[in-house]
Design goal:
four-stranded antiparallel beta sheet; alpha+beta; Membrane-bound Lytic Murein Transglycosylase D, Chain A
């Protein structure tokens, strides 16, 4: 027996030694897992700490307490009600919610605009609790660990596989949180979530309503993305079809309703009261993107974005991307050193020399370097240094986009008093419709731009063509 084949026979039993079967707390069946509950809780605590380092928390009018109360009410009805659950609102404009192992549930500020009752909020939280109780993250990680081990064995026969990049567990879990766990697990989470809704006294059809609202938001954003030349955003785990047409989803909701006929009020008034004044879109602490400009009042800066590029305002950087992902320009910041900007640029790039332009930019100390189709810059403002890095996918694309990147960098300046007013975030306001209220009229006075009418319909659950009824409480953006 040659050495490679012998290694395979020695390695195969390792699969069985490492694999463990644990009883699924929901189904009672044995699942293939490679993580104990104690390990799950430890991983969850570590991930929770990391999430809180990356995201600021958000609260307004007792919103955090309200969300936790709704979440705990549902968690008590779950199959793993002995876990110590936490429900946290993060200051992100993204429309998202996710659950970390061990019962740490996060919901973004951005999703609240698209919900219209406490029952719908409960549906989002119950779905994420379903992922926790069914141990979907643990099962996903365990499957990957097994797959990685199998890949290692397979590489004995195919040396070319040894260079294949294997996704690490953190990346795997992050991908699941962003894009969903797959159709079967998402459907199971909806089934469990609907059961917990019913047991807590909510109408299970809130699950259908909230998935429908999020699907409408996804479809609407796909159209807006075409206009803006950017990639569409989507709530994780949504089905390809609309929930109105999804027979299996309707069936799981109907099955769950047997636990208790929803007796609790849907909580529309209480929910809307918690959304009034809620920040919509970017928050001032992160900077505001408006009409092709970026304003950050706290840092005291402003700049023009390349057009028609899209911009992502992340917690640690501003990322500007050309249509088709052809080019990218990033801005980050750090404490200003005592040395001039050209020295910081040389240290950052690890170069000794170069044709660095040290001309001031709008009265600010600066250093700019074009090299091999890439653009680098450092600008000093106040006690901060702002670093720019621009690149393209090819020399031809660099030639096409470098001027737009230069123009954006050279537009960087200290924010003016007039611009400070534009740096204020948008927020949700409640109004009462009368017999003459129409979304087209509300859109004319909205700061939302050309997609204002569709957005207003979306956030009031009247998309694509509904109109408000007299006396109805509406959300508008101001």
């Amino acid at each position: 027996m040659n050495s490679r084949l012998k290694a395979v026979f020695l390695a195969l039993p390792l699969l069985f030694l490492l694999a463990a079967c644990a009883q699924n707390p929901v189904t009672g069946k044995q699942d293939f897992v490679m993580m104990s509950e104690a390990q799950e809780l430890t991983l969850g605590r570590q991930a929770d700490q990391e999430a809180k380092r990356q995201y600021a928390l958000y609260d307004l009018h007792g919103l955090a307490k309200y969300v936790d109360e709704v979440g705990q009410r549902l968690a008590r009805q779950s199959h793993r009600n002995t876990l110590s659950y936490s429900f946290t609102v993060i200051d992100s404009s993204e429309v998202n919610a996710f659950a970390l192992p061990g019962g740490h549930v996060y919901i973004s500020r951005g999703i609240f605009a698209f919900l219209n009752s406490e029952a719908e909020l409960a549906a989002v939280l119950a779905h994420e609790i379903g992922h926790v109780t069914a141990r979907h993250s643990v099962r996903q990680i365990s499957a990957a660990q097994g797959a990685d081990l199998a890949l290692s064995i397979a590489s004995i026969f195919s040396p070319g596989l040894r260079n294949q990049e294997v996704q690490n567990l953190t990346g795997l879990l992050g991908n699941a949180l962003l894009s969903g766990y797959g159709r079967e697990h998402e459907l199971e989470a909806d089934h469990l979530g609907a059961e917990y809704l019913s047991r807590a006294g909510y109408d299970t059809h809130a699950m259908i309503r909230v998935i429908g609202a999020l699907k409408n938001q996804e479809l609407f954003d796909a159209e807006a993305a075409k206009q803006e030349g950017r990639a569409a955003r989507a709530y994780h785990g949504l089905f390809a079809s609309h929930p109105d047409n999804d027979t299996r989803l309707k069936q799981v909701i109907a099955d769950a309703s047997r636990y208790r006929d929803g007796r609790r009020d849907d909580g529309r008034a209480a929910y809307l009261a918690h959304t009034t004044g809620l920040v919509y879109g970017d928050n001032a602490q992160q900077g505001v993107i408006r009409a092709g400009q970026f304003y950050h009042a706290e840092l005291g800066l402003a700049l023009r974005l390349p057009q028609p590029w899209r911009a992502a305002n992340l917690p640690d950087k501003l990322v500007m991307t050309a249509p088709g992902e052809e080019a990218r320009l990033e801005m980050t910041t750090q404490k200003k050193p005592a040395t001039p900007p050209q020295d910081l640029l040389r240290r950052a790039l690890r170069i000794d020399a170069g044709d660095i332009d040290i001309s001031p930019i709008n009265g600010l100390q600066a250093a700019v370097l074009d090299t091999r189709g890439r653009l680098f810059a450092v600008i000093y403002l106040g006690e901060r240094a702002y670093l720019f890095a621009g690149s393209a996918r090819s020399p031809e694309l660099a030639a096409r986009h470098l001027e737009a990147m230069r123009t954006s960098v050279k537009s960087f300046h200290a924010i003016s008093e007039a611009e400070r007013k534009l740096a204020r975030p948008l927020s949700i306001k409640l109004v009462t419709a009368d017999a003459n209220t129409r979304f087209a009229e509300l859109a004319r006075g909205s700061p939302l731009g050309r997609n204002a009418e569709g957005t207003l319909r979306l956030i009031n659950a009247l998309y694509p063509a509904g109109e408000p009824k007299p006396g109805q409480t509406l959300k508008v953006i101001e």
